[in-house]
Amino acid sequence: MHLSAASWLGLFLAVPAGAEEPAGIRSFLPAQPLSRAQRPAPISAIVSNLTDEPLSVEAKLVTPPGVTLLRPSAGARVRLDGKEERRLQWTIQAVAAGEQELALELTAGGAVVTTAKLTLRLLPPLPIRRQPYLPEPQPVQTDVLVGAHNCPLWESDRPEMWATEMWANILKHPERTPALGFYGQESPEVADWETKWAVEHGVSFFIYCWYRNGQGGPVKMNFGSAIHDALFKSRFRRHMKYTIMWENQSRGHAGVSDERDLFTNLLPFWIENYFKDPGYLKMDGKPVLFIYRPEFLVQDLGGVDKVAAAFDKMRAACRDAGFEGLYLLGEYRGLDPNHLKLMKSLGLDYTFAYCWHVPNSPTPQQAIDAQMNDLRATQQLGILPQVATVSQAWSGWQDEGSIWKIPPTDFERLLRQAKDLIATFPAHELGRRLLLLDNWNEWGEGHYLAPYREYGFGYLDAVRRVFSTAPEAHEDLLPEDIGHGPYDTAYRTWTQRTEDLRKRMTRRVLKAGAPEEGLVGWWTFDENGDSPVVLDYSGNRHGGVLESAARAKGIDGGALVCQGGCAVVDNHPALSLTEALSIECWAKTDVGGQGNTWMVNRVFSGGINTGFRLGVLDGKPCFEVPQTDWSHHLSAREPLPQGRWVHLCGTFDGKLMRIYVDGEEQGEMERPGPIHANEFHLCLGNFELKHAAHFVGLLDEVKLYGRALSPAEVREHFQRLAGRARQ
Q1: Which of 644, 591, 586, 576 is nearest to 614 (CA)?
Q2: What mean pLDDT comes out for the span 267-279?
Q3: pLDDT grade for 164, boundaries at 50, 70 and 90
Q4: Signed CA dihedral, 366, 370, 371, 376: sign only
Q5: Same domain, 95 and 193
Q6: Are residues 624 and 705 in the same domain?
Q7: Model pLDDT, residue 75
Q8: Domain-embedded: residue 130
């Protein structure tokens, strides 16, 4: 799911869908991901007037015993204009370390209208000792080598993607906020913090996901900054080993085009840039290479036997480069004997799991048992040796499917069981000497070990207790303890810009004809050509952000140029129309036969049985209100006319869907039952931002209603502008 430049700002709305409260709390968060006892800790909240009229509100911060309110916000009593938002701030200080729960009460008209809660984890007190740089790491010794998968997606040079897509699920779950904030991974100082935290808790190497960007030619990378810009330039790199997992999942793009590509481009790059590096992990004199989808190489190289031959050649090439060979490990998280036999036939040395997808949203104990059962079963099959991985949690990037988390105390039990299991593996195998942790920093997908808001250093402390004989008592530093940071400047800049955009796009504006019965939103694209926002002229303030798109002359004022960009309207409960709806717009194109292009969409992966959309399918106008996955596509009888403005409308009354072209009905379909609500944004001009399934042409006068327009109303709406349609 893509979130627009402003969409994430609505993720912490405290007022549930359908609520009638006049005020809400959009966010309630600490300024720092982790705070210390006996040190001032700033807290802020964004409170919202949900009505169109001015409103006086009082925001009261309620603190538990042992927590002192040092600085009440001067704006705790505020008067808000219609739909206005205001940021309020407090400073608290706790006496002792541990969890503290704060509450924020919002009062309007003498009554509490909504509340929000915030759990703070206070680390032990520590005086601030400013230092010129991070103290040298103090690595602890472990009886097995412990490595952690490292997800290097957190680059700050592409803020539109980085601050909206990469961090989107963390913004939905602020308890996941890393101790470094929403950092940019390309910083060598960030790498040094990660190295220090890892080696001082017994994690001695990282397995970086490694992404190739294009096949068949010289190597180009995606997300390579964690290694090349950060680790390689960091001061503490000598303390930390690393290896790579070839993330060849993207077919035709991230693998190899043929054997020549493998041996002319890819392997030489790895040998020269990584394998020969003293910091690269080698076991028994052999570099260790992880491969995410080894079975994809069967197609890339032309057969199982050719993959096996290529792996042998890779080992020979490594011996020619001065190594003892090459260890090849293939990712698999299942128990199908046939797949394990395939992996063995390919010539892999070991199997490993990147993570464990435990089904049915298990309890912590069930998640522990499932992982240990799979590890034992893999061993009992005896087909291919394994290097064991243990997982801490899972959610998926969109909270899809099974969602679970093992708290640090339970995770420690899992680590001890895994340690006991690998002690039974044959002494000569890597699986006896290595244990893999999932994951260091997969913040979006929901599995992570690095220090963060909810549990602080809890997971790393568990690793230290299980695998190291070092004293349990130790000092875990944060950047602010020594006067360093922040490392999220790009994110903070983006946040400020987005806050400014939100104020602009939620202005109340009306166009002649509004308000109108049941009208939820009206997007006319009549703003100035360079305006980054798209206003809602219904008066309901559901404005959006223009993303990689432009305006042109429309049928009435401006129009959206649909060439891959779009306008993205923030999620709002009012967009989840469940009983009835209508979508109408004017569209113009010179491109006939468009196959699967969309101009109004609220149906996305992760919710393909919910929402609505309007577009072109097989050259014909199409209206969809799915009831099951991708169901209920209602197409018009005739193709979309070219070279002129066309009025399109789709209506749903709870029983029937209808589609109209130029005011005349061109199809109907039975679809009884309500529409499932969702939390998606609304995309205008495309299926999704920068998606290939975008309408090609112009889009104007988009209206969304919370009722089914009658045939007479649709005809009348067409006739209002019909005289301009051929101009």
Answers
A1: 586
A2: 98
A3: low
A4: positive
A5: no
A6: yes
A7: 58
A8: no
